[in-house]
Design brief:
The chain is an alpha+beta fold. It is built from eight helices and nine strands. The longest helix has 10 residues, at about 75-85. A hairpin with a 2-residue loop joins strand 7 and strand 8 (about 200-210). It has two domains: about 15-160, Probable tRNA modification gtpase trme, domain 1 (Gyrase A, domain 2); about 165-230.
Amino acid sequence: MTRTLPTEPAPIAWSAIDVRGDEAGGFLQSQLSQDVARARDEEVWTLLLQPDGAVLTSGWLGSLDDGYRVTVPRALAAASLERLRRFHRRVHCTLELVSTVPGPFATRTAQIDARWPLEGEYALALAPQSYGRHFVETTVSFEKGCFTGQELVGRLDARGANVPWRLAYLEGPTLERVADTVASRGPASHPAVTTWEAVAEGVRALAVVHRTLLEPAHLASLEGVTVTPVP
């Protein structure tokens, strides 16, 4: 299969879900991984999880005069709103989709620099621990109480999170060479490179790789491509 490299970083489009009303905070506290109280003073990262603990999306959570705003990648906004509505019963708050808002990253360059997963990585339906310890510490509160998807996340964290798939940062001469490296370990139904950009030296990318690719002996055997696990 022929792959075409982008000539410049693709912009990232963002939307928001505004949650307003007397019970907005309590509703989001039961649905998001972050302690909603933190968003009263600053914007914070949070996760919207599926009931099985898989990440649907990360969100940039901030406060409004009468509620909260959760900013998410536009590609995942409709699915995020649908997911929240599944649990929006007998709650005194409203959910409204705002199609265009500014977000925490404007370009793929900024996303890759931050080593932060977005739409492509979340399409793989993985647990938060697959994206690194920093990701979990930034997005999840284990003291706030119950939230949808908490059981698996808490269990993985307690057991040391030895997950089979891990987010990694890669650099290589071509996208084809990077993609071949990603696919060199793990099952045949291996995830592909999820986010990349062309640079003067070749390609830099984010990809979800099988944990066996990150074994020191295998990393030492790679030629022309560097692979660094996202901590």
